[in-house]
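Sample A.
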Amino acid sequence: MKCKQCGATLPEDSQYCLQCGTENKPSMASQPQKELDFLKPALLGGLAMGVLSSLPLIALLNVVCCLWVQAGGGLTTWLLNKQRPGGLKYGDGAFGGVFSGLIGAFVATIISIPVQMIAFSPERIAQLQAQFGQIQGMPPAVRDAMFQWMTPGFSLTRTLFTLVFYMIVYGLFSMIGGILTVAIVGRKKAD
């Protein structure tokens, strides 16, 4: 470190210059930043995202650019910002968002199992098959694939496909939510 007044080399952790007596205040850039704990914020953001994205009527807001998923990534980043106020980088928001998106994908998949078991009842499947049977021009292979997908009750294939799909979509959109939150928090600090 150098003295701001006279340019003399200063010993580490010195509060005053030994040459001219000028007070030496270390800059924020030279201080090490506190290590971020991503787990708790990601769990909270992922839980909120997964629950809100799985509830039948509330989940409809995900049609608007995956609103709940981005909000979960934003919540994670907002909680990370409380650990290091104004010191987050875009990479921190992106990582926190992806981490919460993966957690949210697991939560949403687990919650979707009973919802799918109710939605794909034998009566509802029979109604859907009758409706699809009336559609003209649908290739039989497509119709058969849809019927296999809509089996009554629990389906491991449907659940695993849902999990992989959610992991991709939730990871991407929650990352976007995390990055946007870093930009918003950084802008508020600048104002």
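Sample B, a different protein:
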Amino acid sequence: MLSKTSETHDTRIPLLERDQVSPELGGLYDALLQQRGVVPNMFKTVAHTPALAVAFASFLKPLLSDSALAGWYKELVATRLSVLQQSSYAISAHGLSAKQKGASEAQIAAVKSDFEAGPFTEAEKLGFRCAERLHRSPLEIDDSFFAQLKGAYSDPQIIELIATACAFELFPRFVEALRIPLTSPPIAGPASPGGTMAKKEV
């Protein structure tokens, strides 16, 4: 059964293809293909534990969709954390997702290098600073810095920002520890027009 995988010589866990998984996971694969234009190799790996694959998808979809914060911005936060984690897989995956959701090439390039000099609003830069502080230590979100967040974001936005930053301490470590190979780019994937970060609620 596992002889039909797309594994490479570095892959620690074989990748499971659509015809190798249960009908439930087959539906998940189909949904991911429709949403992203490709089934990410992380899901082809975690498919060995079906309940966890479903849980990962159920967690990531609302986390990175448009809500209090725009999906493209949260994808860029994920990309920034992936840079800090030195995860080529996650940088590639979330850079692509950010583009599909409306981030510009200039924004994606900046978040991979110097976001402070990139085409972002001051609130967006503050969010990236928040992610970097969390990466170093949650203690760096002190009262003074949190007051800055409260001045720029609504409570739901702060929750989404913190949750996204924390989540991408986990996922880049997961894919790098298992040496999951880069997912091939989609031949033709979904795209959405550019926009601005969701404004603070009043």
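Observation for Sample B: The chain is about 60% helix and 0% strand.
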